[in-house]
Give the backbone structure.
Amino acid sequence: MLTQSISVNASRFVAFWLLMLFAAHVAAVDANKRITQYAHTAWRTRDGFFSGSPRAITQTTDGYIWVATQSEMFQFDGVRLMKWTPSGGGQFPSSKINALLGSSDGSLWIATDSGLAQWKNQQLTLISGSQARISWIIERANGEVWFSRIPLSDQIGGVCRVSGQQAQCFGPRDGIPVKSAAVLSEDRSGYLWFGDQSKVVQWNGSSIRIFAPPALKGNQADGLRGMVAAPDGSVWLGFNIKGPGIGLQKVVGDSLKPFVTHELDSSTLEVTTLLLDRQNSVWVGTISQGIFRIHGAVVDHYGSADGLSSDYILQLYEDREGDVWAATSRGIDCFRDLRVTSYTRREGLPSEEVDSVLASRDGTIWADGPAGLSSIRGRTVTSIQPPRTGTRATQVTSLLEDHAGRTWVGLENSLYVYDRGIFHSVVRPDGRQPGFVVGLAEDSDHNIWAEIIGPRRALLRISNLVVDREFREPEMPAARKLAIAPDGSLWLGLLTGDLARYKDGKTDIFRFKNNPAPTRDSAVNEVVVATDGSVLGATSFGLIAWKDGTQQTMTTKNGLPCDAIYSAVTDRRGTLWLYAQCGIVEIANTELQKWWKDRNARLQVRTIGPLDGAQPGPVPFQGAAVSPDGRVWFANGTALQVFDTSDTSRNSIPPPVYIQDVVAEHKTYGGNVNTRFPAGTRDLQIDYTALSFRNPQKVAFRYRLEGRDNIWQDAGSRRQAFYTDLPPGRYRFRVIASNNDGVWNEQGAMLAFSIAPAWYQTKIFKFGCALFAMLLVWTIHRVRVRQVGQAIGARFDERLAERTRIARDLHDTLLQTIQGSKLVADDALEASSDPGRMRKALEQLSGWLQQAGQEGRAALNSLRVSATTTNDLAEAFKRVLETTPIHSLAATISVSGDVRDIHPIVRDEVYRVGYEAIRNAHAHSGGNHLEVQLRYADDLTLRITDNGTGADASTFSAGKEGHYGVRGMRERAGRIGAKLNVVSDATRGTEVCLVVPGKIAFHNGKTPRSWTIRGLLRRGRPD
């Protein structure tokens, strides 16, 4: 069960009363139309709309229609019929509802079998003292709410007034001669009318008048069932008893008189309810005869045979837009005006087929079909039988009113003039019939031109009812339609879809390049000469036009809703009306002139479509006409249709707009303002509505979600808005709507709501994330700067270490040799006069210089990076042995294991350690054998041994004072994470063993080489 909760704020309440002010000036359903010409919609119980018979109907100030069955309540917005129960757990006095009232203060009053209830401001209030069967409820002109009831056995008074939340009832002790009342009403003088099974009472609180028709006495029926007071002071009473003196009565003086016309004897009616609409028409609901409407002396009827849901009428109601509602035993029916009105056999035409239409200057509308000719004046349709051909009715093929007001009628192969009720025949000079006439026109000389089709197509000119000239092909092209221009030229709509002009004995053909290959559907359907002298042709491929030598074609590219046009006509304002495949199209003269200036212009047009009653269709002959009152008439082959171009039929009431529900994450919330949705809400569905019942399918909506939408969204007739992935925040949803005639309610409805953020969507969390991101970026930057600094430092340390080693080497060898050479030279210079000493010094100096050269080459050789020559350490050490002057040592090199790629830095350090060990053995060992061993296994091992005289342990651990060879070897070993072991013995010589872990030395080591080497370089940095 759906509980509907609608909140109406003060601004909407004021807006409603503004709307009601408009409604007071809006016409009801047009009384000049038959009920069959209204739009009729039924919601039947057999279709599942209701579980029981609807008994009551009303409209509240918020615009909703309310329907009550015997046990249920429904709220209706024109599209959705929603079952309703009061919110807050309130219950009606009884489940059986008899009557409803929407009062001016916004209340909904519910009359039940056990009392009266008021629904207002979301509260249900039971009226104290109303405990009885409430049969009717009204609001008087002064705003008081009164109801009639059938009291319980111990109660007095059948008429009651609501005062606050109490009921004050009036009965026999107040001078009222009835104990109960089934119906209650008020006339224009302020008198209350009610009655029982035997009498009718008129009472104003002090004076009383009683009507007691004899036919009511002893009758067990309810008696009076309806009362309405007309503006002329007359009062209509309806009784649910048929028979003389009952049925439908009018109060005349102090008596009742039945309403009788030649169309209706009201004594045959069993009346159940009465309604007086804004057109002062009396609507009569009956028990078994459907609905009657009385306007003046004209009576109209509508029953189940016409489509009414049931002939048993329980209530009639008129809403604020003038639509008439009927609650029947089998459903709800609504009657509303259509912008386009149709005439068919139900309205008196002799046949459903209408092939031509003509509007005379006196206001008579002529329509023809296979069953003859019909004239329409107001509500009166008169059928006229034209002359017959043999025993068969003759088909009317064309119509024309000439300058004298005579009507020219084409009847298949004949042509007649209808004047003062007599048909006069028009013949050729030889007495033959003119032929099959499909088009007629009159020129300024009052000649009649007739287009003939058939085996021999021709164009005839008729003067004084006689054919005086005939044009045949090829002198005159085959045409279907014709018109006369103000300059006297004759324009023809050709079968090829082109236009032709006949003037001064010359025929010009104007072809349109947009015309497809000619077919049977290519013919020009209508030719119209507009007020500006332009010639227009209605075709299946658009509107062709000629003006002052310019040819253009208007299609959907220019704003037409469709290209197929069946007929066309212009009114006195120059407005062009098209009967097109998609509806009636209105093009203002200003738009036409804009199109003539720019053939590619996009025009503003109005379309009146099927929802407005338009039923366009092709017509074989004359399809459009404009009557003197400005209405536009169209024939469509199956009906005659008329469109009222005036604003009197326009719905000027903007519809109230409401937000009904909000569905958030599959949970339904009411349409209350300032709703707060929980965290995690992302998807929203907002249901809204606009209350216009004249044509609900044409109600259009626009909405905008402030905080999300930058512009208004056109929703068309859709009554839902959908939003996905909405972030947390505050929003305002606004929706506006227009009625069926485009009148907008700009105020609309508004819903303010907010979506709470989840913990990860809060500002604090976002600020923390931003701060963490900044800190992370700063940390990464600092780490990177440190890494770059360390890498630069490692390179600097490496260079510094190498420079230190070179300095050591130069100091220990080359510089000392050069210094010694200087001493030799100085000594020689002191004894420069001694040639022998000089020669000896020079020989010594030469030896020293040779030694300096060898030491310099050795230093340069130690700088050579092994990677620049070879990746094989054995080859590198072999070159060392070859270039080092080892005169007393025999050297051997051995390699074990598979040779593997070594990291360049490791390789260089191993090479320099080995080079230093070889050099030391040559310089200091004094032995005669040197062995170099390389072993490739899990680790890289370099072993260099000699058989000379070893040194003491302190020399190999700390190095010799002033020398840096051993110290440099240990520093290099430490830089690459290797283990250096030097063992020396006076009898066995010296052994230098360098072991480099495989994960550091080899390329397939598991530890990343770059990080390992950098780390080792840092750890091995010399102090």
Remarks:
- Confidence is low (pLDDT under 50) at residues 1-25, 865-869, 1006-1023.
- The domain at 767-1019 is CATH 3.30.565.10 (Heat Shock Protein 90).
- The longest strand covers residues 744-755.
